TrEMBL record:
Single GO MF descriptor: N-methyltransferase activity
Family named by the database record: Belongs to the N(4)/N(6)-methyltransferase family.
Coiled-coil segments: none
Pfam family, one: HsdM_N
E.C. number(s) listed in UniProt: 2.1.1.72
Protein name: site-specific DNA-methyltransferase (adenine-specific)
Top-level division of the source organism's lineage: Bacteria
GO process annotations (BP): DNA restriction-modification system; methylation
PANTHER family linked: SLR6095 PROTEIN (PTHR42933), TYPE I RESTRICTION ENZYME ECOKI METHYLASE SUBUNIT (PTHR42933:SF4)
């Protein structure tokens, strides 16, 4: 039922002039979904308070409550069409009254870790893109048919929301920035094996895939209400720079069962890493930081190793953000292992001398759909030098693509062998002493398998050429804009 409702909402958005892409659809679905969720949560909390004979105060005042403007009901529970705003009246109310009221929570909230602050932050960051009040009315009535009553319902909704995020990632534009394939995230978490009571951090959290999957992993191990409270309040921390991703991250975490997510809307790299103190550090870092995106010189001043490559700045931030003995699993471009520029060499030196880089997972092309780059995952522990590095080359035996994505079985062998650092046809061990002390080159070359020149599918070659052409056009357009 939920799936059909979301499809129907997408159909409404498709006809809406203000919404052009899967990104827009997800953004608009998210703010409506958030307000419906909030209304269900408030009503459930009111019932709990009544049971205990306590007075309950709503966060949202009566005029701006979902049940007043979005879905007014008659006494018999049926929809009250006579009192439901529609057309221009509805658009006017949402743009001139509702959004400004909700934005105001940011200044009224007691602290940034409150649900009130999150409401203010979300509605300061997104716009209502509906131009037709009739379309919006249809979307609101469809959303009202969903219920967040039980954990099962939330779980089902979270699966559908994840599917939307996946579609958004596949739709191109910059949707792929927000989406890391979940089988890869799950394998990374299994290797890092976080424990209840540890603080987990992603400073480039996108749609919060790492935090949500880590929550699911740990919730299965929770054995008391104290454990659940620890997971809810003191375990997951994220930062996200982009407005839409921030909103999606909050919604995704809420749907997974984290009621007031500790996600901050901020540019992680704007913080000088020498200001990070012990109290700010984490036990576990899980991340897929954005790469490329040349950072401005003033941002680079926050880091000892100066570079315009965003991912390398994030790597420095993550190492600094780990406690001594803390573990990290971080996705990065595979060229990081062999690049000869000063920043790459200095960063590899840092990883080998001040961290134990115990595993490198080499992922095949096509892991990230729409991105022409190949990636590796670095697994390391802070505070002791590297002695041995265990490499694993993931070879699913097929070309990965939109219709044939990475799955959990593709990484089963990696997780099983990694537990004992076993060498195999796809895995091998390198002694850190054998790494060149001038270049610290860590190129992935499998000594246990003769590499055959793979015959690539012509479709893959054409797709890669198209992606490179699009990239070239974008670069030329940006140069043209400067001239």
């Amino acid at each position: 039922m939920f799936e059909q409702t979301f499809k129907n909402i997408d159909d409404v958005l498709w006809k809406e002039a203000g919404c052009a892409t899967e990104l827009d659809y997800t953004e608009q679905t998210s703010w409506i979904l958030f307000l419906k969720y909030l209304d269900d949560l408030e009503r459930a909390n009111e019932q709990k308070a009544e049971l205990h004979g306590k007075k309950f105060t709503y966060i949202i005042d009566k005029k701006h409550r979902w049940s007043t403007w979005a879905a007014p009901k008659k006494k018999d529970g049926s929809f009250d069409h006579d009192n439901a705003k529609t057309g221009d009246d509805l658009i006017d109310f949402v743009n001139r009254d509702l959004f400004p009221y909700l934005q105001g929570f940011r200044t009224r909230a007691e602290g940034s870790d409150t649900i009130e602050y999150k409401i203010g932050e979300i509605f300061s960051e997104i716009k209502n893109r509906f131009q037709s009040g009739y379309s919006l009315r249809d979307a609101l009535e469809l959303m009202d048919s969903l219920s967040f009553g039980s954990q099962d319902q939330k779980h089902e909704l979270s699966h559908i929301y994840e599917a939307k995020l996946k579609n958004m990632g596949n739709a191109g534009r910059n949707g792929g920035e927000y989406y890391t394939p979940r089988p890869l995230i799950r394998a990374m978490i299994q290797v890092i094996n976080p424990k209840i009571g540890e603080r987990i951090y992603d400073g480039a959290c996108g749609s919060a895939g790492f935090l949500c999957e880590a929550f699911d992993y740990l919730r299965a191990k929770a054995s008391s209400t104290k454990d659940i409270r620890t997971l809810q309040e003191k375990t997951f921390f994220g930062k996200e720079k982009k407005s839409l991703a921030y909103v999606i991250a909050i919604m995704n975490m809420i749907l997974h069962g984290i009621e007031a997510p500790n996600v901050i809307h901020a540019n992680t790299l704007a913080e000088n890493i020498s200001d990070i103190q012990d109290k700010d550090r984490f036990d576990v870092v899980l991340a897929n930081p954005p790469f490329g995106g040349k950072e401005r010189p003033e941002i680079q001043q926050n880091f000892p190793i100066k570079t315009g490559e965003t991912a390398f700045l994030f790597l420095q931030h993550f190492i600094k953000s780990l406690k001594a003995g803390g573990r990290a699993a971080i996705v990065i471009k595979n060229t990081f292992l062999s690049n000869s520029d000063n920043a790459s060499v200095a960063l590899r030196k840092e990883l080998l001398e001040n961290c134990n880089l115990f595993t490198v997972l080499d992922m095949p092309g096509g892991t990230f759909q729409g991105a022409g780059v190949k990636t590796v995952v670095l697994f390391f522990e802070k505070g002791a030098p590297t002695r041995k590095i265990w490499f694993y080359k993931c070879d699913p035996g097929r070309n990965l693509g939109k219709t044939n994505p990475l799955n959990d079985d593709d990484l089963k062998d990696f997780v099983a062998l990694q537990a004992k650092f076993r060498d195999s046809e796809n895995s091998w061990t390198v002694d850190a002493k054998s790494v060149d002390p001038t270049t610290f080159d860590l190129s992935v070359k499998n000594p246990n398998k003769v590499e055959e020149a793979a015959l690539r599918d012509p479709k893959d070659i054409i797709a890669e050429m198209a992606a490179l052409d699009a990239e070239s056009a974008e670069i030329l357009a940006s140069i043209g804009a400067i001239l």
